[in-house]
Design brief:
The protein is α/β, with parallel strands linked by helices. It folds into two domains: about 130 residues; about 400 residues, Spore Coat Polysaccharide Biosynthesis Protein SpsA, Chain A (Alpha-Beta Complex). About 45% of the residues lie in helices and about 10% in strands. It has an eight-stranded mixed beta sheet, with helices on both faces.
């Protein structure tokens, strides 16, 4: 890639701009902090002068709430010290350079064909297979942590449909490469293709959808839907003793670019199904463990220098996304060698304007990352992130060697040998349930373990090792995902996030100690703010009930306005 960087030394690939609100934000933070500290001081003095036990308990609870709120507010200011906006110029990457572009491995994670329907996986896979990128340089890996033959069947059907869908998109300049989104939008009617072509491809899609959904409804893949000997051989691995918690490794190469072509005779991206081995006696570390298994398996089969991680319901909305990523990786004007990952905001489809469950999380996914981007970069949010493979093996100046040379990011792989017995045996071996025993996987190498919020911990520790992140937020959403649509799913998600963030806060990697030491006070505070999110419940609960109860019992809680007018006014206005 060094040759490409030198080639673009005269062409701007991206432009960062400091937010115009930076200076006003800093002035406001100083004024507000002064008023808040003064108020807390008076609160402390008042608390120490109380004589009755009842008033002391009530005032102590309110003081605790105010301290928590102040700490959360203080850490919030770190996002406002240097927010920046970026613009990319992918048009400056010439088409003559396509043969030299780095290869990309795409990881799509799923775990349950009933909670995460195979058709969601199919649409996500087809959307990334349709990237405006050399097809021979794209490999799509689907991690099925549930080990379901239904997911494999869906992917086999997707591969067959993709042979028609990908040429259709190229020939008709279709931007929405996710079939479900395309047919549901008005763009299908505005397409340059003829109505008969659209109806034909739509009929093919609906037919595939019926077959996949019927299989899910029946809970099995019928023999009549298995059309080839290779397919039959693949499904024979699902024996009577095969369960989602206890099963051997299954790796199936569904599409191989060197031999599989679309209906126009053009190369198709690689498509590989991976179900890592699971045993009840071994820890599997959930999504983090699945991603680490994919890192190892992909290293054996393709070993692309760039990795994209996606949830199964997060489809590509812009086929130009990989080219936007290259605007940072290939830009010689920034320390691109230290750019470990490029994170896109998580955006959701189907949320009404009221967003009654607050699932869009704009501050978490779109606002706060702008502030982090001006420092060392945003946190990883679990999907929509392009990683440099090298970033998973130690810092930019301190390489951590894997236990096998074949797993090294610098290892050269012969993609044509992907079907050889030696290669496949090795790929199966690195996906076994006890492979990570007595290795550094999950601790010094790969996605990090120790919390249910493995995404934020991983990016946090990568930055502590010296890597930087980039927040890429184009006007056109790069990816769209599904948000929880009922209260149970929302609460379950919130519980998992809260547990994971508190695990980080009270671990040896706490942002307020370990983080400040290695990435500075501002970045330490940004991650600290995220980990403090669960304790919002403390002041919210106290202020929701205590003032009303005190009023009913005739207990005075707050001082007269004239006493602290100067201190309270800036806080009230702010």
């Amino acid at each position: 890639m060094e040759t490409l960087r030198r080639r673009f030394s005269t062409k701007p690939l991206h432009k960062p701009e400091l937010s115009r609100l930076t200076i006003p934000n800093r002035i406001f933070a100083v004024v507000y902090a002064t008023a808040a500290v003064t108020l807390l001081y008076h609160h402390t003095v008042t608390l120490s002068s109380l004589f009755t036990t009842k008033n002391t308990k009530i005032s102590s609870a309110l003081f605790l709430s105010d301290v928590v709120l102040f700490l959360i507010w203080l850490t919030t200011q770190s996002f406002r010290m240097k927010p920046i906006h970026r613009n990319e110029f992918p048009q400056n990457i010439s088409k003559e350079s396509e043969k030299e572009l780095p290869a990309i491995d795409v990881f799509v994670c799923t775990a349950d064909p009933y909670k995460e329907p195979p058709m969601n996986v199919v649409n996500t896979v087809l959307s990334v297979m349709g990237f405006d990128y050399p097809a021979g340089k794209v490999s799509v890996y689907v991690s099925d942590d549930g080990g379901s033959d239904l997911s494999l069947f869906g992917l086999i059907e997707a591969a067959k449909f993709g042979a028609h869908w990908l040429p259709f998109c190229r020939e008709n300049d279709v931007v929405e490469r996710c079939p479900e989104a395309y047919f549901a939008s008005s763009n299908a009617n505005l397409s340059s293709s003829s109505t008969s072509d659209i109806e034909k491809i739509k009929t093919m899609y609906e037919s595939m959808k019926v077959r996949v959904e019927n299989a899910v409804e029946m809970g099995k893949v019928c023999d009549e839907n298995i059309t080839g000997e290779d397919e039959r051989k693949a499904f024979k691995k699902w024996t009577d003793g095969f369960t989602r918690q206890d099963h051997p490794t299954v790796i199936q190469v569904i599409l191989h670019g060197s031999k599989d072509k679309d209906i126009r005779g053009d190369v198709m991206p690689n498509l590989i199904y991976v179900a890592r081995e699971k045993r009840r006696t071994s820890l599997h570390h959930f999504k983090a463990g699945a991603l680490n298994a994919l890192i190892r398996v992909s290293a054996i089969l393709t070993n692309s220098p760039i990795i994209l991680t996606l949830d199964c319901d997060t489809y590509s909305n812009d086929p130009q996304t990989p080219m936007r990523v290259l605007c940072y990786i290939l830009d010689p004007k920034i320390e691109s060698q230290k750019v470990g990952y490029i994170q896109f905001p998580q955006r959701f489809r189907g949320i009404n304007k009221n967003d009654i469950y607050g699932c869009e999380h704009k501050r978490l996914y779109s606002i706060n990352p702008l502030g982090m981007d001006g420092l060392l970069g945003p946190n990883y949010v679990g999907t929509g992130c392009f990683f440099r493979r090298r970033a998973f093996f130690g810092g930019p100046l301190k390489f951590v060697s894997p236990e096998m040379i074949e797993l090294s990011p610098d290892n050269v792989v012969d993609n044509k040998a992907i079907h050889s017995k030696q290669v496949m045996d090795l790929a199966h071996y690195v996906a076994t349930s006890n492979y990570e025993d007595k290795t550094q996987w999950g601790y010094k190498v790969g996605i990090r373990y120790g919390t249910t919020s493995e995404d934020i911990l991983t990016s946090y520790l990568l930055q502590c090792e010296g890597w930087k992140g980039i927040f890429c937020n184009p006007n056109k959403a790069a990816f769209y995902g599904d948000a929880p649509i009922n209260l149970f799913d929302v609460l379950n998600q919130q519980k998992r996030w809260a547990t994971g963030l508190l695990q980080i806060l009270f671990s040896k990697y706490s942002p307020f100690t370990f983080g400040i030491k290695y990435i500075g006070i501002l970045m330490g505070f940004t991650y600290g703010h995220n980990t403090l999110w669960p304790i919002w419940s403390i002041p919210i609960t106290i202020y929701a009930f205590l003032p009303q109860l005190a009023l009913l019992n005739g207990v005075s809680l707050f001082p007269k306005c004239a006493q602290y007018f100067l201190e309270v006014t800036p806080i009230y206005v702010g």
